[in-house]
Amino acid sequence: MNRTKLTPLDAAFVQLESPGVPMHVAGLMIFEPPAKGGADFVRTLVSDWRKETRIAAPWNQKLESPSRWQLAPCLKTCQDPDLEYHLRHLVLPKPGGQVELGQLVARLHSQPMDMRKLLWECYVIEGLAENRFAIYMKFHHSIVDGISASVLLMKGLSDSAKDRKTSPFWIQTAPEKPFQPASFKMPSVPAMLGAANNVLKLFGRSDSLTTLRSAPRTPLNGPIGAQRRFATQNFDMTRLKATAKTAGVSLNDVVLCLVGGTLRKYLQGITALPTESLTAAVPMSLRAEGDLSPGNSVGMIYSIIGTNVADPVLRLKKISQATNVAKQQVLGLEPEMRVPYSIASFAPAIARMLTGVSGKKKPMFNAVVSNVPGGRDDKYLRGARLLHCYPANIVFPGMATSFTCYSHAGTLNVGITACRDTVPSMQKLALGMEEALCELEHGLGLEAHANPRSLDVVEAAL
């Protein structure tokens, strides 16, 4: 039996697991069936997958002990998966729209995983409009971060529409860590002092640096319930890139501006908009070049999202300034100290969750905004084209809303996860992102191209 000890960051997601705050992430993939797929296409797919007995790492790994109360969780290998449990086939009443699919995914995402079993679940969902179908794939956060989860999903798809023999996801072997010659050297004293000084800055107040004391109190940052809501939005990448280029900022800055715009409008609607800007924790990959292996390798930077600024162009400018300062906090360090600094910047939030004080004190940040890079080319599952891949993230006490983006084939897909009790009008956030982009384009003198898909959520938002 192979035995693998989890890293401290991976282990933290096991230790944080609880019935009310499950620590899993997921991807919702929407597929367009092949022209000659037939009425039984999805049923045949599920039947074939259930006959498959092969399984590769990390799909074949589960915890040695399912308890969260352990200092050093370990994984063990299981070669006899219960696919009756891990692979489910669900059918929505036809024609299932975005609202119905979102409600189903919200319920699936609310359910904690059985920590005694393999750390993934796959739900194949048919009954969508235009004969489309979906796959909702759930992973425990202890075995994947955003990049490694997207790699596992994309490895299970084909580059060719003519490939009608695509094997199940769990047959595909995950990439291993690239070999790196041992070159460890003890950091110099000035390098360690510089990193320690930058960590200390995060606990203070600054006019330019967004710190862990910058976030105001909002209704989004108290205790949360066990149930989730889930909404989706998507944008043409050419629109976002044109906006970023015109403004002279990064695409990530534009995404933060859209989040700031929709949260500003949402909080105004419930008369709860604070005078200070909300802040966001922005995950930053710490992976070495070419490292696509399973597990977590992320740190955090923090930025304002301009909710206290009415002008969308000025909001974007202030966000860009804040993210540049935050990045310099990391890039200004010696290379060997960037990973320790980034981990230290995330540690206070983990410590709050472990001690149970999250949601009871002033928040360290108000939301999480993550952007996972994807591929530019189309992907297929037995000839069915992947249209969208929406990420579903975790929320926890003190942080009831999470925005996660994934780019695929020229589209930025946004998954918004929230506490059901804290955010009762979830679709307003999705619709508000489109409105924020149109306002930003107008302010920059660009021709606004409203996304027709946003009209789908109007009825649910009212």
Automatic annotation (TrEMBL):
Pfam families: WS_DGAT_C, WS_DGAT_cat
Keyword Cell wall biogenesis/degradation assigned: no
Record-annotated O-acyltransferase WSD1 C-terminal domain positions: 295-440
Gene3D superfamilies for the chain: Chloramphenicol acetyltransferase-like domain, Nonribosomal peptide synthetase, condensation domain
Domain O-acyltransferase WSD1-like N-terminal: from-to ranges: 6-255
GO molecular function, one term: diacylglycerol O-acyltransferase activity
EC number assigned by the record: 2.3.1.20
Domain of life: Bacteria
GO cellular component: plasma membrane
InterPro entries: Acyl_transf_WS/DGAT, CAT-like_dom_sf, O-acyltransferase_WSD1-like, O-acyltransferase_WSD1_C, O-acyltransferase_WSD1_N
Gene Ontology BP annotations: biological process involved in interaction with host; glycerol metabolic process; response to hypoxia; response to nitric oxide; triglyceride biosynthetic process
Leader sequence residues: none
Reactions catalysed: an acyl-CoA + a 1,2-diacyl-sn-glycerol = a triacyl-sn-glycerol + CoA
Recorded metabolic or biological pathway in which this protein acts: Glycerolipid metabolism; triacylglycerol biosynthesis; Lipid metabolism
Alphabetized UniProt keyword annotations: Acyltransferase, Glycerol metabolism, Lipid biosynthesis, Lipid metabolism, Transferase
Claim: Repressor is one of the keywords in the record: no
PANTHER family xref list: O-ACYLTRANSFERASE (WSD1-LIKE) FAMILY PROTEIN, WAX ESTER SYNTHASE_DIACYLGLYCEROL ACYLTRANSFERASE 4-RELATED
UniProt family annotation: Belongs to the long-chain O-acyltransferase family.
Protein name in UniProt: diacylglycerol O-acyltransferase
Organism: Marinobacter zhejiangensis
